[in-house]
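Incident review: delayed structure delivery

Summary: a single-chain prediction request sat in the queue longer than the usual turnaround. Root cause was a stuck worker, restarted by the on-call engineer. No data loss occurred. The affected request and its eventual output are reproduced below so the record is complete for anyone auditing the incident later.

Affected input:
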Amino acid sequence: MIGPLDGGAGVVGPLDPAGAVDLAAARMQMALSLGWHIIVACLGVGMPALLLFTEWRAVRTGDPGHMRLARRWAQAVGVVFAVGAVSGTILSFEMGLLWPGLMGVYGQVVGLPFALEGIAFFLEAIFLGIYLYAWDRLSPRAHLLSGVPVLVAGVASAFFIVTANAWMNQPRGFDLANGRITNVSPWRAMFNPATPPQTIHMIIAAFMVSGYVTASVYAVGLLRGRRDRHHRLGFLVPFTLAAALTPVQIVVGDYAARFLSTYQPTKLAAMEGVYRTGPYAPLTLGGVFVDDRMRYGVEIPSALSMLVGYRPSAVVQGLDRTPPGDRPPVTPVHLAFDTMVGIGFLLLLLAAWLALSWWRRRDLPRSPWFLRLAAASGVLAVLAVEAGWVVTELGRQPWVVYGRLRTSQAVNPAPGLWAGFVLLVVVYTVLTVSTVYVLRHMTRRWRVAPQEAAAA
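Output delivered after worker restart:
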């Protein structure tokens, strides 16, 4: 077994059965925590932008419809922030408890973004408290300005955390001397080559998830016949934001994938199921990777070489250049990537449908299928983000720090990690049920309030 600071690519010896079970349990804990937290984190980043826009419109025009939306969305933001704080705290403890081989060795290198994220989180909490509880105690302009730090701090939190993940994909900012870390440069570690594509891709995704999830709630209401101005505004504001960002995200995604061809070619090869290195590499849609080749998929000749190098003869590195023990699981990475890309283009078509209808009639499309797809867009956006993180994390395996530290070396050697996974399932089940109950109770109360006002 190579040492934890060995930069070589040797194959780690097999784990004993108990160790393999605990490693699997630790990975499942991290996957569950990250997969759950990323949803509320996206809402926490993007919803303040929707909230501030609607309040700005209300302050500027005096429109009570926008103000009603702003006040209701503010309550939802408060709930999302609360549950996000819980899941984020769980994640922070898991980093140390489950992966001491990572944090104990490399904590001094990658600790800066975690510290900065903590500062951003506290600033967000302070100003969110002011924003929520001083609504009627500040002037409209002052109250609107008090929400700006909430948006800025939320985006900053996402940026700092993603830079830490980017460092795991492109470790920089340290030297190895006699098996010890020296010349630590936390700023160089944080601003590594993977930081631009990953942070831009993730922050745009957060705004898209917030837009589509929020719009999907109102799309359901429109499908049920609630065609009042409140539901139209509640749909159009978030959906327009998400729709405008969708083509931008596709371009950024192409940039991020091309980045991998230079810096993580093994991950790109797994994403596309490419085994042999060479020119005229095909692009395969769907399929499974069996016996070093993609089967049952739809192959587009030379398309991958065109996307990577803008010419069919561009050479794409395949999995044959990577030792078998250093390859990620190809089929799940490939299918997750196809899922993310497929959903992205489906949402692009949905955005174009709205744009065409608005250009022609200044109205929503009349087909009920538009609203049906819009109602599903929130779930689809969440699935795309989850699939993207599967590609990012599973595509890096077996490394937790790419080329430096294996996941099996970073895990806590203490036995019984499976018990923690069972407990975590219980915790997140309770947290999910509680969150859904609170949000549904809030929406039912909002529907009853106008009826009571009309009766009075």
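Verification: The radius of gyration is 24 Å.
Action items: add queue-age alerting; document worker restart procedure.
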